Amino acid sequence: MKSAHRRVAVAALAATCVLSGCAKSEEEPATTGAGAAPAASQVVQSAAPGAATCTIDQHGGEKIDLKTAKVGFSQSEKEANPFRIAETQSIKDEAAKLGITQLTTANANSQFNKQISDVEQMIDAGVQLLIIAPLNSDGWDSVFAKASAKKIPIVTIDRKINAAACKDYLTFIGSDFAEQGKRAADEMAKALGNKGEVAILLGAPGNNVTTLRTSGFKDQMAKIAPDIKITFEQTGNFSREEGQKVAEQLLQSKPNINGIYGENDEMALGAVTALKGAGKKPGDVKIVSIDGTKGAVQGIVDGWISAVIESNPRFGPLAFSTAGDFFGGKPVGQDIIIADRSYDESNAKSDLASAY
Amino acid sequence: MTTLTLTTPRRADWLPKYGVYLAIAALIVYNAAFTPYFLTVSNLRIQLIQVAPIIIVALGMALVIGTEGIDLSVGAVMALVAALIPLYLGYGVIAAVIVSLLAGVAVGLINGALVAKVGLQPIVATLALFVGGRGLAVVISDGQLKDIRNADLIYLGSGDLLGIPVLVWTAALAILVVAFTVRRTVFGRRLLAIGGNRPAAELAGLPVQRVLITVYVLCAVLAAIAGLLSVGRIQSSDASSIGLLIELSAITAVVVGGTPLTGGRVRVLGTVAGAVLMQLVIATMIKNNLPPSTTEMVQAAIILVAVYAARERKTR
Amino acid sequence: MTLLEVAGVSKVFPGVRALDDVSFALRPGEVHALVGENGAGKSTLIKVLTGVYRPDAGELRYQGEPVSFATPMDAQRAGISTIYQEVNLIPLMSVAQNLFLGREPRTTLGLVDRARMDREARDILAGYGVTTDVRARLGSLPLGAQQMVALACAVMIDAKVVVMDEPTSSLEPREVETLFGVIQDLHERGIGIIYVSHRMDELYRICDTVTILRDGKLVHTGRLADLERVRLVALMLGREVSDVRREGFTVFSGDHAAADDTPVLRVSGLSSRNRLHDISFGVRPGEVVGLGGLLGAGRSETIKAIAGAYPVDRGEIEVDGAPLRHPTTVKAVAAGIAVQPEDRKAEGIIPGLSIRENIALSILPRMSTFGLVSDAKIDEVVDRFMKRLRIKAAGPHQRVGDLSGGNQQKVLLARLLATGPKVLLLDEPTRGIDVGAKAEVQALIDELAAEGLGVVLVSSDAEELVEGSGRVVVLRDGAVVGVLTGDDVTTESLLATIAEAGA
């Protein structure tokens, strides 16, 4: 077993190397159109008149100063994709900006049980405001019971919970996924000149984001450009690798495809790699996707992607200003839908720095 | 003396041996008839590129299964490799390759030691790194997807050598090496003996621990190679998603290829065919735009048939 | 009236005619011996009788009616029970659970009545001379006791026919007596017994009738008392009576008093946990030393400890003058120790591999250059040993699992011999193999000793132990309690020493 020991030693050396930081990564290329442009924070879509609002009297609880409040933030998924990273960072940054010192954060790593217990622990620890990015839309009853007993307002972000606003939770702040799909259809129709064959790279099956981004896209496409045929729909599970694999198969068996709609940027970037591998040139196949990550916006700059609809993850400012209004006694909307921006070749270069 | 005309043919013995090739042939015939552009070089190329990493991982898995073991940590190895590569790519592609292989060796040594020396059941021993390995990878990579721009690494994953993708060359080489190892080397024969009857192999004076550790190291190194090439192919490193569930694809390929989970036998070509079959199923479904649930049901049916066939052989 | 009978039954496997027009009849209360060399068709006939195989031709009648059992379960439900050579119970379940498997006593709530099950199991097993904690895992019991549990299981389900395949092969003398008592009891209750054994003494003691098979054909059936022993053996082997007379029943030459050499194996003060205490003995080149004692006396543990497969706390082992420190199986084989374990299937052969791979297993490094195996070298060795040990098989590539017990044992011995050992440790080398192979193995042991190997022989067959060994070391409870030498090596003095020691 001597040789085995030696091998262990070598491996240990390598490990030390990682820890001691003798690592050396690739040098970052100069970003095109750089400049420290401020990250774009969210803007509320103009609320429809008469939309339901909520006040502290309706919800219950005491007026407090947000600065000194204990705040808990529960993230649903591992911070492994740009959206989640930006989302968590935005909450932390905004809290720091406002001078909130008592912010606790937890990550459920995609385990719903863990998210429930994360939140319950925060309640037990005496938080006065909860911001939750829910993993699931159902199964929150026990949390609501605990929170309403202590009159703790809950702001849910990016995904909605199936429950009563202003009662079980205070408000929902998020994007309209179906609207994102519609706008993607508009961009696609524009890029193709209202005719051609389009393929959809679907998100994870059974996810409401997938469902809404699909229905929004299809409905709008049928309405505005009936000559565009959607001839292919396969899941890429929101992952770059699977997006690439599916796109490779697609390009091989349907060489006449004109457009690819990626339900997130990762799959669209996978499709770009597939297009490169198939010997296509930028613009041969039009790509439209949703999210607005740096990689995808760079893809527009490079000519591979026609347009990207943003799904803004920077919930921090809006979440805290909503909570501030609420604690200050002002009415807040029960459904705050944010206005997502979009990128195309006209603004990609200049706005690249504000992509996440 | 009475003359007998009755015989009992060996039922279903052909199924685990040749079933997988038959299924491949059937799928090719179906696609040739119904799928446009199927019998083209470009299609062959894409299927080979997509299946190559699975084949590389499945070969290592087949060796482990040959010892009556299982390795759940192959996906985690790929993740670790994906996390480490961007850290060292600054030194060039050689450094990335070396670091990847070292990571494979390290994981293999841990798995092997847990199985051979501590005596844990393989499924439990490798579960540790299945869970922990990817977690560590996500920590190392800071949870972030990193784009790869190193031309040499991209060449390994996406480039051609003599008109054939490097990825496919690598898989072919791995097939040859593993087949040769199983058939011709002392190590290969010992591996099969240990899988066939470990107590007997021990009493026969075989270095059982050393062989087992080597098997797990080989498996992890093959997974590391698959991880390295995948990073080059996807042209980005994402520790949280690379190689996700590949252990299941690999085990499926091995089982469908006719290697029994009870050890003592390794079908190298069968394993390759198993991986190719599953790839063809996926390709057929995607190309004909069938819903993913159909793909999963067809895959499940194939696995059931394979397991059933293996059972037939055992009871004979 | 016959209880169970077949007429003109045939069964063909690819390449083998396992049964060829065989007829067999069992009457109630009869103890019917079924004998023949391995491969004669005994197992196939039993499997036809118990519903495992369907005959290709011929008829099966049970209690006068033509029947066809679809599965062994059907046969069992009809009252035909089988105790196989290898105990087929569930080692991880308790003794009581095994005994009541599938027919557990229930409480009024429909739950298993554990207390009652344990109580009844204790009572039933006491009738078989087994006093043990019935809540213990079956696997923790000695093989002999497991066999008794299997027998109790078989008899419990209202059997009318009980098939016993080598039931005494793993029993010690006292247990054999208990078994014979049980058989006598079954006989009186009118239950028919088919008794398969290679031990002549047993057959003549308890069987009424005998059926002899050879090469799948019926060669004789009739009252056993009317058949002379030599005649029986001659019929089985297909040889002339005069040959058998000349060769005798066991083929040991009996003379293993070795030259006064330094021992090739020296064991001193060997101790292990609570199982082995201060065991010392030596084996000189050309000597066969027997290890005697009852089951559980520590014979197998001693052998395994020497082979590096059982932990050693204290003591020294020397092979040819060189000490073997902290023995491992790898070191032991390298030092020239070759061990044939008691349980051939579990620890000996590798059933899924070919004869060739099994024989070459321990010598692969010698058969290779730079880790690459040379098939030519292996073929040469395999060919030599297959010839020398007269291994009967379709060829060197046949799976060992498909061979008869005797040939499996020969393959295993070939593996040991291929290593060119100095010391052979043999644990029950002739268990569960047919008369012909048994004689060959015994002759081989003689021959090897004559060539200068040191042999340690463990056997539960007192006759074999005494005739095969030049010296017998008697163990009890993991300690040496006596050594028989010279004229003292007799069955009587062996049993006396064991009995004395046991007192």
Automatic annotation (TrEMBL), chain B:
Its main location: membrane. It is a multi-pass membrane protein. CDD domains: TM_PBP1_transp_AraH_like (cd06579). It comes from the Bacteria. PANTHER family: ABC TRANSPORTER PERMEASE PROTEIN YPHD-RELATED-RELATED, GALACTOFURANOSE TRANSPORTER PERMEASE PROTEIN YTFT. The keyword Zinc does not apply. It is found in: Cell membrane. This is ABC transporter permease. The keyword Lyase does not apply. InterPro entries: ABC_transp_permease (IPR001851). It holds the Pfam family BPD_transp_2. It comes from Actinoplanes flavus. The chain crosses the membrane at residues 20-39, 45-65, 72-89, 95-116, 123-141, 161-182, 211-230, 242-261, 268-286, 292-310. Keywords: Cell membrane, Membrane, Transmembrane, Transmembrane helix.
TrEMBL record, chain C:
Keywords: ATP-binding, Nucleotide-binding, Repeat, Transport. InterPro entries: AAA+_ATPase, ABC_carbohydrate_import_ATPase, ABC_transporter-like_ATP-bd, ABC_transporter-like_CS, P-loop_NTPase. The lineage of its organism: Bacteria, Bacillati, Actinomycetota, Actinomycetes, Micromonosporales. Residues 4-240, 259-502 form the ABC transporter domain. Gene3D superfamilies: P-loop containing nucleotide triphosphate hydrolases (3.40.50.300). This is Sugar ABC transporter ATP-binding protein. One of its GO terms (molecular function) is ATP binding. PANTHER family: CARBOHYDRATE TRANSPORT ATP-BINDING PROTEIN MG119-RELATED (PTHR43790), GALACTOFURANOSE TRANSPORTER ATP-BINDING PROTEIN YTFR (PTHR43790:SF9).
